[in-house]
Amino acid sequence: MLHVAKKFQLSLFCNFRRFHNTSESFERLINSGVLSINEEVKYALAEQHPVVALESTIITHGLPYPDNVKCAMDVENEIRQKGAVPATIAILNGVIRAGLSIEEMETLGNIAKSNPIKTSRRDFPYVISNKSNGGTTVSGTLIVANKIGIPIFATGGIGGVHREGETTFDISADLIELGKSQVAVVSSGVKSILDIPKTLEYLETQGVFVATYGATKDFPAFYSRKSGCQAPYSIPNATEAARIISSTRNMNLQSGMLFAVPVPEEYALNDEEIQKVIERALEEARKNDIRGKQITPFLLRNIWEMTHGKSLHTNIALIKNNAKVAASIAVEIGKLEKTSKSSSGTGSRIDRQKDDISNYAD
Ligand code: PSU
Ligand code: MN
């Protein structure tokens, strides 16, 4: 009989192996103490319950305190209510964490208190070795979710190609990471602070599957339901989305997917009004010579100030809605996996891997 903790670690290891055909980096991640997964998430992964990953830059740099902490907790509740387990990813004292307590969210959310670093791929080494706190961006969260084997993650909006990106070269690392992580992201597209057509082109180049979630192919613009761009595909419901994710995994494509969910109609902002606000915010950024990783948080802060909180209301509503969609898809992925496991009998790939690992452990 294997010790319970050991069994969890082995099951996690199996879960990981289901997604990747190598074991070394996962073992190293756990054994070096760089990654810590909380009990709830660990149990869910080991038992193959649906799990939804969540980013934390939205908490540290995306929304103001205390709305950010409340929103993070509400989002987790939405996911639980749909029958999935939330795994908010962040870095605390140099340790990457999957699954946070309320106190930990509070620490991250109060930026003045703990000074968290906005963490994308390039920032991890610094944040970890300096034992700092970090909010993981979409790109940072994708890396961690992919390593742990969480197939789906919810957020508000992903980063993209910035306006005038052709001269500034400011293209979010989110797009590159999406191209090489076997994780599906559910977002309301990208904000029109960015260049949406160029962002879609770039996603195509990176090999990212992009679809709207719902009846139309109108690619959303975060605060509003249409951007004027069309997505290559539209997926009508969670069952179909899960089948798409499953196909990517069966083919072992190792690339990501973006499901773009328009903001619910009742929370959508007037397109013209928000465009004007965005133009003003961009002008402010130019005047203040804001660049690099500062630009997205700067624009977000300006937009909610200029709209007197109206944009914040919309922002929070769409994040919650995206979390619900992601949880429904996670539940459907679970059903598909169970079906494929039972139809292939005891000699399934997963069972064989579990046997492999048990042998290896003993
Ligand atoms: N877009 C939003 N809200 C956000 C972000 C983007 O509407 O909070 C955050 C996300 O964490 C995203 C990051 O991954 O900003 C992108 O930053 P950059 O453009 O510096 O890559
Ligand atoms: Mn950038």
From TrEMBL:
Keywords, alphabetical: Glycosidase, Hydrolase, Lyase, Manganese, Metal-binding
Record field: compositional bias (Basic and acidic residues): 349-362
Protein's name in the database: Pseudouridine-5'-phosphate glycosidase
PANTHER family for this protein: CARBOHYDRATE KINASE PFKB DOMAIN-CONTAINING PROTEIN (PTHR42909:SF1), ZGC:136858 (PTHR42909)
A GO MF term: metal ion binding
Pfam families the record matches: Indigoidine_A
Region annotated Disordered, chain positions: 338-362
Organism: Cryptolaemus montrouzieri
Gene3D superfamilies with a match to the protein in the record: Indigoidine synthase domain
Signal peptide: none
